[in-house]
Amino acid sequence: SFHSMQLAFCLFVSERHTMTYIETAATGWNESPELTEVIFVNGQEFVHYKSSLKKMVPKTEWIEKTVDPEYWERESKRNTHNEQAIKAHVVWLMERLNQTSGVHILQWVYGCEWNEDTEEVTGFEILGYDGRDYVAFDLKTETYIASAPQAVITKHNWDRDKTRISYKKYFLTQECVDKLKNFVNSGRKSLMKTVPPSVSLLQKSPSSPISCHATGFFPNVAEMFWRKDGEELHEDVHKGEILPNNDETFQMSVDLKLSSVKPEDWERYDCVFQFSGVNKEIVTKLDKTKIKTNTGKTEFKGRLLIFKKYIYLSSGLFCYSMYIVTCHHHSGSVNGHKN
C-alpha cells in the first residue's frame, strides 16, 4: 500500500527559505510571565528557549554540528534581554487595557525570507496579544501598522524611535538572512526532505460529501484538489486548512459534493496531492470500493486537544493555533476544527 511507502526522500520543494522566531510570554499561571522562544528554519523547529531553563536547547542533530559553542551562550543572553522587554510590555498592555488578573498571552513573531534563486530577501515582524494582531512592522515603509485602536500609541512611539527602526531593518534584512543562509547550507539535507502522505477517501454517510484526506506529510507547503477529466474543480468542493499532527507532520482534506457527481461519471474524477514547487503528483481515483465509511461499524470517538505551531512559509506568517481534533478510530478519519 501507499502507506508503507511513507519514507523520507529528498526533493527541492522550493528555493525560498524562511527563518521564523516566535516568542511567547504568558502571564496568569505564575507570579511573573513565562517566556518561551522557538526558532524555525523552513518550518523545522531547531532550537527552543524557556525562561525557566535560562538557556537555548537544540532540537535537531544537525544544528549541534553546525554552530560554534559560543552560539548557545549568545542566544541565551539575547533571550534574557528580550525576556525583560517582553515582560515589561505585557505589564504595560494589561495596565492600558485595565486588566488586573487572568491569563494573558503576548506573541512576538519575526523573521526573514530568502529566495536562493533571485537573492531577494524580505523580513516580517508581528506582535499579537491574547490571540489578536496588535502591531506589525512594514519593512517597505519602515513604519509600524496598528491592528487595534489600543495599538496606535505603540505605533507612534515606535515610529519615532529611529534607532529601533534602523536596527529592525538591519536585523531582518542582514543578520537574520546571514544566519538563515548558514543554516540552510549546513542543514540542507535535513531541511529539504519531504515526507509523502497517506491518502484516503472518507465518507460519513452515503449522502455526505466524499473527503479526500491526506495525513503524515511534511513540509506543510502543499496543495490538494479534486479534478474532473484532468481539470481542477472549483465548484462543489470545499478545501480544509492544513492542520498539524502531533508528530511534526501535517494533514489536510478536500471535500467533493457527491450530488454533483453522476454515477456514470465517477471514473472521470480524481483527487490530487502535490507539494508546492514539485511536479510529481499523488493521484487518488474516485473509486467506490476504496471509500471508508461509518456505516455498520463500531465507532470510537475521541477529542484530542493539540496546541501546535502552524506555519505559512510562503507568506512568512506564523501563529500558534489551538485545534480540537475528532478522531474516528474505526475508519482512520480525522476531522480538525480550529478552536
UniProtKB/TrEMBL annotation:
SMART domains xrefs: IGc1
Keywords in alphabetical order: Glycoprotein
Location of the Ig-like domain: 197-284
Keyword Cytoplasm recorded: no
GO cellular component: external side of plasma membrane; extracellular space
One of the protein's GO biological processes: immune response
InterPro entries the UniProt entry points to: Ig-like_dom, Ig-like_dom_sf, Ig-like_fold, Ig_C1-set, MHC_class-I_related, MHC_I-like_Ag-recog, MHC_I-like_Ag-recog_sf, MHC_I/II-like_Ag-recog
Statement: the UniProt record of this protein carries the keyword tRNA-binding: no
Cited PANTHER family: MHC CLASS I ANTIGEN TRANSCRIPT VARIANT 1-RELATED, MHC CLASS I-RELATED
Family per record: Belongs to the MHC class I family.
Name of the featured protein: Ig-like domain-containing protein
Species in which this protein is naturally found: Oreochromis aureus (Israeli tilapia)
Lineage, highest ranks first: Eukaryota, Metazoa, Chordata, Craniata, Vertebrata
